[in-house]
């Protein structure tokens, strides 16, 4: 948490040193930089990644908004802030759209982007796979030794892949506390059938988002993911594997704090890069009183 605060403060000071409007970049140039970080061929075949909306009239990209999910509240924020490009981790256009009307929230988002001339880019599983991406960020909640992808990318292990596994040395209770500090939020815990909070944890498997299919059957002491089905949790428990659930987008969103600085540097300060203040996980934990 202290590291995140210092990083954010450093970025604010660096940007405050200049009151000149960012010079901007072309949309094609910004997209090229995004794809240098995470090439689109790293994404899963079923995914819909890359430039999803390109406005008819080109304009310099000066203001970039990062968000985990492009909801209508985030869309309104983008319009109010004069955003030129939205980078939405999850693609708001996934299933094919047969029409663009005002009856559906996703169609309204597309309509607003087109009307306001705002471009839209989504990296999704390319960011999951790439070294230094979302899964590496989530894994860094714990001390990591010999981190490897659970499912290596067909292009080669150096290109990352789905999920991460590594060895560590701490108790389950310490792991829970470390993940909570890392994401800044509460988590849910499913205990392995013979586990307690004092159980030593050695092998960890991580998959940001919905990790059931990637983690299923993988031998480990602990899984860390966003969400898993009830039956997958029962299977893990009876295999003596504990599971930390962060909620789907809470296992991903914190990466934006790291990427905000990285993208600003990649573009050499030519664009302002900010994180949405309206983007939140739809699930809230209500503590019983």
Automatic annotation (TrEMBL):
SUPFAM superfamilies: NIF3 (NGG1p interacting factor 3)-like (SSF102705). Keywords: Metal-binding. InterPro entries: DUF34/NIF3 (IPR002678), DUF34/NIF3_sf (IPR036069). The keyword Metal-binding applies. Pfam families: DUF34_NIF3 (PF01784). One of its GO terms (cellular component) is mitochondrion. The keyword Metal-binding applies. It comes from the Eukaryota. GO terms for molecular function: metal ion binding. A divalent metal cation binds at residues 90, 128, 248, 252. NCBIfam families: YbgI_SA1388 (TIGR00486). Belongs to the GTP cyclohydrolase I type 2/NIF3 family. This is NIF3-like protein 1. It comes from Ceratitis capitata (Mediterranean fruit fly). The lineage of its organism: Eukaryota, Metazoa, Ecdysozoa, Arthropoda, Hexapoda.
């Amino acid at each position: 948490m202290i590291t995140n605060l210092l990083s954010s403060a450093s970025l604010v000071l660096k940007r405050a040193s200049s009151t000149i409007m960012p010079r901007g970049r072309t949309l094609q140039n910004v997209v090229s930089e995004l794809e240098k970080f995470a090439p689109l061929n790293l994404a899963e075949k079923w995914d819909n990644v890359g430039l999803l909306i390109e406005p008819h009239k080109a304009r310099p990209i000066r203001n970039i908004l990062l968000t985990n999910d492009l909801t209508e509240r985030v869309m309104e924020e983008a319009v109010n802030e004069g955003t030129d490009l939205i980078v939405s981790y999850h693609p708001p256009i996934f299933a094919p759209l047969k029409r663009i009307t005002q009856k559906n929230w996703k169609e309204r988002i597309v309509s607003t982007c087109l009307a306001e001339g705002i471009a839209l880019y989504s990296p999704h599983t390319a960011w999951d796979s790439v070294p230094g991406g979302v899964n590496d960020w989530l894994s860094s909640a714990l001390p990591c030794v010999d981190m490897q992808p659970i499912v290596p990318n067909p292009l080669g292990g150096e290109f990352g892949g789905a999920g991460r596994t590594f060895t560590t040395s701490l108790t389950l209770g310490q792991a829970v506390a470390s993940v909570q500090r890392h994401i800044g939020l509460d988590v849910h815990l499913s205990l392995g059938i013979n586990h307690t909070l004092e159980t030593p944890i050695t092998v960890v498997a991580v998959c940001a988002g919905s990790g059931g299919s990637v983690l299923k059957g993988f031998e480990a002491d602990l899984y860390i993911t966003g969400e898993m089905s009830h039956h997958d949790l029962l299977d893990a428990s009876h295999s003596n594997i504990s599971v930390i659930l962060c909620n789907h987008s809470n296992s991903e969103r914190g990466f934006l704090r790291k990427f905000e600085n990285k993208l600003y540097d990649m573009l050499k300060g030519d664009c302002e890069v900010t994180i949405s203040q309206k983007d939140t996980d739809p699930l809230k934990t209500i503590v019983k009183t």
